[in-house]
Structures are given as structure tokens and as C-alpha cells.
């Protein structure tokens, strides 16, 4: 870093953190740097400083922070610079830039020339994502301010505030992008963290997260403007709930006193943004650390404390904001581990990928057997139709049915609706076809030939920017005497596979005759998975589980 220039690091692409390598973390469209200001000790250097004795040779410090924290840090930097290196204060000139935390994590991890010497992200969850292949940046100051996560909506949408899961499941959550914003990531982590108190099942969490990821992941531009979401949530009759920071809500309230919005903390508790000061310099880290400590000290002065509160931030002990603003006392959920953060965001990335799928439904004679008051066919079609609601309009889905010799040239499968985006028209075609299906009397289950043909069809129409799957619904096992053996079918499926262009079978079996071993062998040959519902009540969870295995 030196006395006159900030650290510049060379690019290192040999090693990345697992999350950045596997998921391509932090793909942003937020705009890069906002305002740049320098606060040094040279008289009149930035127009903010008055008189005072200048340091002869100030150390140059490049600091990056989030836009909402820029003003408090500018005030601290100005105050520090005015002391001119006296009374044990370091002689520094701090240049402050504002950019999203995710962007700086990406820059540091990639060894970008834009790497600052000090970094104040809005949450320490980004620090582990800034591994440049040599070291994870060190935290010099654990926190300079905090703000808890809250859920914002119209009052009538808070009939049940018992948990994050229940509030969002009962309404329409508008979630900031978890891959580029801390509020979005912390929302997902809060849903997982509170399970220690609620004992919510994997299925209950999945029923919220899977369709949410599908919906938000299909958007051309993820949500990043929380004020715009507040505006949508404030409309009459809106069911939108917005997980956000208390600080952003307080500032919105000040700017929109007429808004009919309320912020609440779920009864289970909440997670918070903690604004650490992180040393990201490649050299002269001692000087950067000294500057961090000095800035933190300046932020403890009475004037800085008042300015922080006015900006909507809490102190490091989470004391409530003055004047009754915000949500008052908060209960903290257990802080997520770095492993939990990585796993949660990896899962979100996988679940939010677009879908290119072919649904293949068994209509053999055994599907006429009843389970309770409904036939297996009726239950399967209900599960398939209900599954449509989990897919966004941008997903692509087609429909086949299968039973022995029902297709052209006595094929065991019959194409009904070609794979296409799920427009209103496409959804209508699929639903209309599902409604008129009925079991074929004495029809056999031509499972093997159908599985091979369905994989071949999806491969012919492969979409490189989507998850390509065959959703195979059946109640039994193969009973077509003219088909290949199971071993031959598995070999044929393996022969079609291309690791760079995978097409997976997700098999959904239903009822006591569904052969789990057979379905697992077929799905496993493609890198897919098989699920069996032994009773009708399991069908919804089985479908959710199937989507998660993509």
C-alpha cells in the first residue's frame, strides 16, 4: 500500500472459494461505484476540511462501503483527518467509495485492481466469499453499526407473526436477490435458523423456497431496489411482504409518512447486518488495520453516535432506535455458520435455474385402481397439475403419456404437448390434456422404452441455460414383454449421457406397486433421482423433493 498509493493486487485465478467457483457468486447488475470522496490531512484537499496542521506524508487508504453507510464513514474520516496525526491518531488520507458488498467480495476474490485497502460490507457473511485464493480478508473491527432484519407489509397481512416461514407462506414474499444483497441472503438463512425453535420440516421449508426460487430466478432482473418493493407492498389490497432491514424501512417511513406499512420482527427472532471493518489490503496491512481502529474510535463519539441513529442504524449492542422508531427490542436468531451460508446460497442458485422438462405420465390399466375415493390416475394428474403452479412462465414444459403400444407405430408412449414456455396458452393445453386422460384397460407399463425415448427427446431440444429433465410419473414397474431388460435400459440411458449436457430423469412413483429399485436404477443412470409416495398425502412433498433434486 505504501504512503502514497493504495494496494494493487495481481489477478489470481488458480484457486477460489468453493462457493464462488461452483455457483458463480455475485453476478450483479447494480451499477458499480457511486460517490468518491477523500478525507485527508492536506489542507483543503477535498473542500471539506478547514484549517489545521497537515500531516507531512499521509498514508493513503482506499475504503469501500455500502451506499447507506457512506455518510457516517465520511464524517468519521473527516474528523480523523482534522486531527492531523496528533495525539496518537494515524496520519491518513481516506478515499471512500460506495458499492454493493457483493461486488467488492467478487472484486477481492478475483484479485481485481479495484480491491480496496479497507472494506465495510453490510454483513460479515460476505467476508468468507472474498477469498482470493491465498487468504480470507481479516476483520479488524467486528462491527461499527447494526440493523436487524424485519418483514414489511400492510398491517392486515400480519395475522400470524409466529415465524418467518409462516408469514411468507401466507402472503406473497418479494425477496431481494439473495446472491447480491445481504437482506435477501439473510432472509433465507433466517428461515433455516428459526427451525431450531419451530421444528419446521424440510418439506414445509421446501414448499416455500422451491416456488419462490423458481419465480424470482426466472426474472430478467432480480429485485435489488427495496424502496420500489415497499411501494408495491403499500398498495391497497397488496399481499406483498418484503423482508428488509429496519434501517431501510425507517428511512422509507421518513420519506413517505403517508405509507400504510408496518415492520415486524417474527416471534422466533431475527438476524442482523453487522457492518464490520475488513482489511483487504495486499500489503502494509498494519497501516490499514490502524486506520480501521482509528475510524471505529471516531464512530464512538457523541456526535457520530447521534448521526448513526439518525441514519437509522443501531449500535453494536442492538439498542433500539431513539424516538420509538423501528421495531424496538429484538431477539437474535442463532448466527449462521459459513457452511450454512454457502449451502443455502448454493441451493438457491440451483433451484432458481430455469427448467426445460418433459412430463411423462403413466396411463396403464393399473392406474384405474382406487386409493381411497380416487383412482391412482386422478391422484397423479392432480399432482402433475398442482406441480404446474411451481413453475414460472419462463419454464418450458411438455407432456407425454405412456402405456404399451399406444403411440405411433405401436410405440409405448404418445406425445401430447410439445415442450414450450409455460405461457397461459401452454398451461391451458397441458391442463386440458391432463383432464381427458384415462387408464387404458389392460394396458401395460412400457416404462423402459418410454424412459429412453423421453430422454432422447429432451436431449434433441436441449437448452444450455436450463435444467433439462424428464419428470416420469408411474404407479408400477415395467411389464412390457417386448421391451429391453432393466440392465439394457440402464445401459442405453448411460450411453446417451453427455456430462456437459446432462438430461436427468426425476421418477415419481405412486402406490404400493411402484418399484423403487427399478425407478432408482433408471433415474440413477442419468444422474437423476427417484421418489415414491406410498399414500396420496405424500404426493405434494414428493413433487417438491423432485424439483429440489435437479
From TrEMBL:
Signal peptide interval: none
Keywords carried by this UniProt record: Membrane, Transmembrane, Transmembrane helix
Domain called VWFA: residue spans: 356-547
Source organism, top-level taxon: Bacteria
InterPro entries tied to this protein: VWF_A, vWFA_dom_sf
Residues spanning the membrane: 18-36
Identification of the protein by name: VWA domain-containing protein
